[in-house]
Amino acid sequence: MKALIKILLALFIAFSAIAPTTAQTKKSEKKAAKAAAMRQMIESKDFTFEANYAYPSYGIQRYLTPGYDLRVAKDTVVSYLPFMGVAYSSAGYNNSDDNGIKFTSTNFTYTSEEKKNGMFYVVIRPKDAKNASQMALTISPTGSADLSVLSTNRERMRFTGEIKEKQKK
User: Which of 142, 145, 157, 163 is least enclosed, having the fewest CB within 10 Å?
Assistant: First the structure.
């Protein structure tokens, strides 16, 4: 009877040691799959950046209601983002053309680079957009992202959010 108890105890300890290893393996496999999916979206120029927070140059971070995004496709970039900050020329409260960082561009350059730590750096330079001369995305392998928008006639704006698969319409 004592031998049976020792055998059962040894089996229990062996299975207890194996279970956490299996969970860690599954977690690392999910993480690697997510990073591969992120790499695929960035390389194929087919993703959406959904903004959660805005960081104006002059002020405090602001939570954004859902719906503000930057959609990237092979031939088109569509930006629907707010602007909160100082505009320098031909913009302002009396200008009806001042409508945030909202544009559709079909003439742009797109460069992406993967860093050693698994982060991605994407730069989009729209040539036919008035309110954005450069949009730089820093993307983690898990999909969280930071977007910095530069303009010739406005202060820099920064957004944080998530990279998502582009929804088919």
Answer: 142
* φ/ψ of residue 124, rounded to 5: -115, 125
For residues 64 and 71, the answer to whether their CB atoms sit within 8 Å is: no
What's the pLDDT tens digit per position in 103-159? 999 999 999 999 888 899 999 999 988 778 899 999 999 899 999 999 888 889 999
* Spatial contact of 128 and 107, defined as CB atoms under 8 Å apart: yes
- Chain-centroid distance of CA 37 in Å reads 13
Quick one: tokens of 133?
A: 């001369």
77 exposed, middle or buried (CB, 10 Å; 0-12, 13-18, 19+)?
Answer: buried
Which positions ≥6 away from 135 have C-beta within 8 Å?
70, 77, 79, 123, 124, 125, 126, 147, 148, 149, 150
d(CA 101, CA 80): 6
Residue 4 CA to its chain's centroid (Å): 56
Give the distance, in angstroms, between the CA of residue 105 and the centroid of all CA atoms in the same chain.
Answer: 19
Residue type present at position 48: T
Residue 57, φ and ψ in degrees, nearest 5: -60, -30
Tokens of 101: 């960082």
